[in-house]
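Entry 14. Structure prediction run on the chain below.
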Amino acid sequence: MDQKSLLFTPEGVRDIYGEDCERRAKIQQGIHTIMKQYGFKNIQTPTFEFFDIFNRERGTVKSADMFKFFDQYNNTLVLRPDITPSIARCVAKYYEKEETKKQNIKDGVKVAFDGKPTPITAINCPQANRNLNLYLLPGHMNLSEYDAQLNFAQTATMALTSLKSLPGAFNDLIDKTCRVYDIEFVFIDLNPGLSSINQNLFLISDAFIIPTNPDTFSLMAIKSLSAILPRWVKWKEQNIDSFSDSAYPLPNTTPKFIGEIAQRFNIRNGKATSPYRDKITELTDLTKQLLVPVFAQNNMLFEEQKYVDAGIDDSYCLEEIKDFQGLSPKSHDSNVPVYELEDSELRASGAALQGMKENRRFFYELYEKIANEIKIILG
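Output returned:
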């Protein structure tokens, strides 16, 4: 290759400088700012990885299209063509540590899903920072592997004896773990999917709260839930006797609606700004007109006096929670709720510090109110 050719870049890449470079940097900075407000943290994986990380089963780029080379030990390396497998590899290291690899919800119910005669036992739960009464039962990135088995167990009319134990497995694990730690309340944070695992975790619960964002997607979700949640409840009512003689019976309970929470919106003069306010109103109206009547027909509401005693009006909105903004990344950095942040962890001064302290107090009072509402309605 002559010296003149070296002045040009290889096919598929180009130099970025001047205004283009500044525009790109500004966009990246804006994205980083927004992501930090929602609690996301940066992650940087190596520019090149072992080829097996991006094989046909895991990657999205064909092997022939990857840039490959060898290290001093003749291992095949590739320039990272896709960030997802690299992040998955990084996260998977958590489950290789001796103190954590077996202490999670997936491994907790493994004996049931493997069909082994060994009973489910409680797992060791880490304690939360600054709250020794709060424990975490970790999830697992591959928990969805059990979804097909659970779906078959919940839909097959003539399920095998070992499969009949699966619908009650999660409840048994949670129940036994609660006994070890003398737990009074269990909060299950479900993802927004409609999997068999989510169905199961919903149906073993005593009550549920629906978190919403003031946007079109939440409006669509409310309409879907009005049909799906009662269908799940009816399935349990019709089939619970089929699992009564299994190793892990389903609890004979019906989840009841506590209320909804509107969250993640900006405020002005102490109120949600106009577009958010309109969507919040639409959400509460849809809840009153669609969700509540359907839940009432399916025994999914508490007695009316319970809501009155808890101070929950007929909108069934427990609270409106504005965006955490600058408090969110600091909360994640310190591994504590926003209202538990100490002044030194706010890393601010002057008016900015005062504003954060006021927000911290606001969120403490708000979450205390929600906690009291839940305690009263479940009492």
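The longest helix spans residues 350-378.
Filed with the rest of this week's runs.
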